[in-house]
Amino acid sequence: MLVVARVTNVWRFRLPLPHLKLHFSSLSQAKLSFQLPYTLEKENHDFLPWLERKAGAQVSSLLSIGKSSYGRALFASKTIRAGDCILRVPYHVQLAPDNLPLEIRALLTNEIGHVAKLAIVVILEMKLGEDSDWAPYISRLPQLKEMHSTIFWSENELKMIRQSSLYQETINKQSLIEKEFFSIRQAVERFPEISERITYKDFMHAYALVSSRAWGTTRGESLIPFADFLNHDGNSRAVVLNDDDKLLSEVIADRDYIPGDQVLIRYGNFSNATLSLDFGFTVPFNIHDEVHIQFNIPHHDPLRRMKLEILQRHHVATNKDVLGFISFTDSFTIKEVRSTSEKGKGIPQSLRAFARVLCANSPQELNDLAIEAEQTDGRLARHPLRNISREIEAHQILIAKTNQLTEEYEASIKSLVPGNSPLVGETLALRRQMAHELLNGELRVLKSASAWLKNYCTTLTTIGSHL
Ligand SMILES: C[S@@+](CC[C@H](N)C(=O)[O-])C[C@H]1O[C@@H](n2cnc3c(N)ncnc32)[C@H](O)[C@@H]1O
């Protein structure tokens, strides 16, 4: 998975807001008690004026900083109408990799990603404490103990999500962070006053801060103070927009708000796996959830070699192992199938094609598939097999796989320690809830795929019986 935290929105135009179909969720109804407690008033008195002085321009006249169950948040301080620009943050008050001191920047090659470079900017500012020009912003960033990205989960906590591909993605991200940390330490070793200040723990913390709150811009990943106090609602149509002509980022309201409403935006169309890894939270029902299914051609299949060759010839992804042998282990991404009757949108055509090749049991069948591909658009097994029983058999392979995974997911969900157990601390209870929402979402995807596949096979069986 990409390490990039959020969708890049380098847009030069505004959304056609008056025509939007608006979605209201319970999330976006979250309200702030209108009697602002002292801490909130102080946040507003200190922070926004500081940012506006630095920006030399007004950032927002419609929003106040406050706290919600999602941590720091922005609330409507006046009536907001759909289409209003609710905040504007000039590029020169955003933190990006080019805020690194020149001599350090020169040492960090392109092998080191933008997220890692920006993490170093954050660490250096953190170390300056009150002397940092960014102190009012840096001091408001969440502490390590408040962050729940799966990269911070203990081995036991990670076992809860063993079933999901997020488990491996988390390990891959941890390895990437470690690798980047050592590359940076090596690159800046000539500057002990800097290299000694960058500990692995600080780097992980800063890396997770950047992953969970920086937007991709033309300057690389950028932290956009104030805009990054906005929390996420997957149903919102409001996103952060970058205007490269005016050199600023802005947010346009997608709906009306009354004073006291929490204002939410959409970080991107992210599954609970991505939200867990990059942002450290999940949502209860996420329409973007997906499952990665691994398939390979069994070694005992007598036609294995021929199947691999034909898959390779027709550009279906194959891998070469370290010894140069071709193997087929690929991951297919299934999304929720919304309707059992239609085309099965959500189950990739490449997966169904793979199942058709997998179930072939004679060289003749494989040759027929290859000839058909050459005579059409070159893609292999994209059409239903002419032999109905064989087409059913191919899809039954997929049903067997989704059923097996469904059972495994159900067992994993059942084995989660109950969140309300007195033995469970606050952090574990929250992470357990995340694991629950992640696994439930992926289970829902599997069940929807299985229902569609079963319906497809039943329809084919009925057709077959009338022939
Ligand atoms: C860009 S920051 C938003 C401001 C943040 N709440 C803060 O305290 O600074 C993103 C972080 O906010 C929290 N967050 C945002 N949307 C959320 C949601 N819908 N549910 C739970 N936590 C959310 C997560 O901790 C996430 O990593």
UniProtKB/TrEMBL annotation:
Keywords: Methyltransferase, S-adenosyl-L-methionine, Transferase. Pfam families: Rubis-subs-bind (PF09273), SET (PF00856). PROSITE patterns: SET (PS50280). It comes from the Eukaryota. One of its GO terms (biological process) is methylation. Coiled coil: none annotated. InterPro entries: Rubisco_LSMT_subst-bd, Rubisco_LSMT_subst-bd_sf, SET_dom, SET_dom_sf, SETD3_SETD6_MTase. Signal peptide: none annotated. Residues 57-268 form the SET domain. It comes from Parasponia andersonii (Sponia andersonii). This is Rubisco LSMT methyltransferase. GO terms for molecular function: protein-lysine N-methyltransferase activity.
